[in-house]
Structures are given as structure tokens and as C-alpha cells.
Amino acid sequence: MVEQEQRTGTSSTRMIATLGIAGLFSGLALVAVFLFTRPIIEANKAEALRRAVFQVLPGSSSFQTLEFSNDKLALLSVEQENNAPKSKNPQIYAGYSKSGKLLGFAIPGEEAGFQDKIKAIFGYDPQRRMLIGFEVLDSKETPGLGDKIIKDKYFRTSLTSLEIDPKIVAVKPGQKTAANQVETITGATISSKTVIRLLDKTIRRWLPSINIYLAKQ
Amino acid sequence: MKNFEEAARYHEEFIKGLWKENPVFVAVLGMCPALAVTNTAINGLAMGGATLFVLTFSSLLVSSFRRYIPKEVRITTFVIIIATFVTIVDFLLQAFLPAIHKELGAFVALIVVNCLILGRQEAFSFKNPIRLAMVDALGMALGFTFALFCLGAIREILGNGSLFGVSLFGPSFEPWIVMILPPGGFLSLGFLLLFFNWLKQRQEQKQSLVYLADAVAEVAEKKDSIISLKRGV
């Protein structure tokens, strides 16, 4: 049979069968690995989010997810949170102290940086109208330059007690005079300005719905 | 004798990938991950490990089924097999090493187009028995990992002043930021290729000197025998 094939060339049936079998086993293997790893991957993501929320809301020991749908913020029930697939509506997180007191909101946002989108989450204290924490979730900014938005301690500290009124503004290094100003980083000007723009734009977008939600509580 | 020859063959196939035909330093293959993800030693090792997984398992399957894969569709079959293992390693990294997966980003998925892997299937695994194919794959993958580690270590030491995240020179060290940026990848690779080519040239020169010495000795021996023949006459 092999000799005959060498003379006449491989039959198309055999070629289709080979590729079909390879595809079938490939599909089976991928589905099996996907099903095995999916819960672990989702648990990793949930853990990363949980850690970020607790970091940007210092003192919080639990949080609840709030979803923006039908022009208002509403608490997600436990079933809704656990149900897959996850809703595509924008979400923020309300952080509570051990005694159950609302400490603030952890709000994720993104903005185009120097290389790619910078994704971050920040904590907002509605009582003091201040930002109280900041964490970068994903960034591809230039190592050694743009990534100072993650590594520069002074810049990060300045985002942990930042007034949002009348507007969060960027100023040159050494020129900060008010509590709503943030000094940009030398060598990471575009990236630090992006972060400041991200904070201001995101908080302005969420503020009306947060105020309505708080008024109803 | 046969066993000795077989062992020597396995040894040769393994060493070839590590040194003599190193995929990065000699064959200059897989340049995309070699330049893109080697800004730290750990990233180099992780990419090497992922490539090792894909290359060894792909070689195992290709070599096992080489008699049943028609040669007209062999490349397509190789790509299906390689893509399957790349997706598996992508899922596994996401699940068990999420920080590394985040660092390597899209380059994990891009292992599928690494010409080293497809090249080994076509040049070796499709023509050789399983054990030999596995030895070749392991040698090549370890050689690739070694090269990525060298690049990553050099770039991290010069560009960050650290190795595996541990600071080596203290806070007074002014890092060469360019080394962890893309130009640093090209510079380091250029210098390493220069070094390996210099080594190769030196070996070749030594080899040619040995040949020359042998040839001179042979001529001298012939001359002596001619003289003694003449004396005899």
C-alpha cells in the first residue's frame, strides 16, 4: 500500500483523515486543559482583584461589588457575583471595615499611556472627597522610565491623600502648592500625566452615580 | 561496541544543541523571544522552560507518528501539534505562574511561530526514532534556555544592577537603562554572537594548525624514508 502510494501519491482521504484526527485530539486535549485550569485562573484573578481592593482601601476587611446598570449603581448579590459568565457592565467595589462601616470605593480605570493602555485601580473616600490609594493593575510602560509610575515612592504617596476638588491637576516636580495637585515624574512625564488624567476622568465619571447611591443609603 | 557507538551518538545529538549548533548563538534562530523577553534572567529562563515543554512534547508526538503522517500534510500536522502544546503551556502558566505569564505577555502564544520548533520537527524528529528525537529536542531546548538566560542575566545585571531580583551593587550603582530596553537586547546579542564567532574561529585555526603539523610530519617522514632508500641503493 505504501509502495502504491509512493507511486500514485497519498490519497486525499488519507490526508483529510490525518488532519482530522490531529485536529480532534488537539481539540480534546485543549478542552481538557481549559476545564482543568479555568477555575484556578479565575481564582487567581479574583485574588489579584481582592488584594488590589484591600490595598487601595486601607483598613478594609471586606468588599462588595457594585454594578452600573440602568443608569444607577446597585449592589450585586452573592449569586450574581458567583455566576459565570461575568457581567460586562462597569463595576466598582465598596470596601467595609471590620465593624461594617463603609470606608470608600475602589474604582478601576484605564487610559492610553506611552506604550499601551495603563490599567489602574484607586480608592476614593466619599466623606473626605479624597483619593486614598492607588495600584497599577496592568502597564507596559518603558522599564526604567515610564514604569516609575509603579516604582516611584514619592509619586505613589502623593496619590494616597489627594483631594479631587476642584480638579486633579498635574504640576511640574517641586511646584505643588495645593492638595489637589500631583507632581509629575522626571523621565516618566507622559506616563505620570496619563495616571493623573486617568484618576480625574474616572472619578468625574463615577462621582454622580456614587453620590446618588450614597444618598439612598 | 554497538552500545558504545549508540551512546556516543546520543551524546553528540545532545551536546550539538547545547553548544556546537546552539539555536541562538550559532544558528541565530528564535530571535523574536530571544530579544523581546530577556530583560531579566527569570524571564529568559521562563521563556526557555515554556519552549522546552513545547519542543520536547512536539518532538515526541511527531517522532511517534512519523510513519502515519503523509509527507504532503506534514507541516500542517506539525503546526497543529505545536499549537496545541503552546496553548496548553499558556493555560498552565496562567494558572500556576500568573506573574510570569503577565511578564511574558503575547510572547507565550508566539512560541507557535518559533522556527526552532518547526525546524527541529522537519529536520530531525520526522526522520528519527523517538529516543533520538527526544535527546535532540532536549539538547536544543536546553541550549535555547541557556542562551536566553545568558542574555537575560547580562541585561538584568547591567540594566538593573541585580540578578534574579537580588541587588548586586547596592544603591550607588547607576543602572544602564538602555540594557533593559530593546536596544540593549540587540547590543547584548551582538556582543555574544561576536564572542561565539571568535571562539569558533579560534577553534578552526587550532584545527588547521593541527592539520598543518600533521601534513608537515607526514612530508618529513616521507623525506626520511626517501633518503634512507637512496642510502640503501
Unreliable stretches covering 5 or more consecutive residues of chain B: none
Mean pLDDT of chain B: 89
Largest β-sheet summary of chain B: 2 strands, antiparallel
| Coarse shape of chain B | flat
**SSE string of chain B:** HHHHHHHEEH
Q: How large is the count of helical segments of chain A?
A: 6
Question: What structural class should be given to the helix and strand makeup of chain A?
Answer: alpha+beta
Q: In what range is the share of β-strand residues of chain A?
A: 25-35%
Distance between the termini of chain A: 80 Å
Q: Strand arrangement, largest sheet of chain B?
A: 1-2
- CA radius of gyration of chain A is 25 Å
Tell me the layout of helices and strands.
The complex is a heterodimer of chains A (217) and B (233).
Chain A: H1 2-8, H2 12-56, E1 62-69, E2 72-75, H3 78-82, E3 91-96, E4 102-112, E5 117-125, E6 130-138, H4 148-151, H5 153-158, E7 162-163, E8 169-171, E9 181-183, H6 189-216
Parallel strand pairs in A: 8-9
Antiparallel strand pairs in A: 1-2, 1-3, 3-4, 4-5, 5-6, 6-7
Chain B: H1 2-20, H2 31-36, H3 41-64, H4 74-96, H5 98-104, H6 115-125, H7 130-160, E1 162-163, E2 166-167, H8 182-232
Antiparallel strand pairs in B: 1-2
Helix pairs in contact in B: 1-7, 3-4, 3-6, 3-7, 4-5, 4-6, 6-7, 7-8
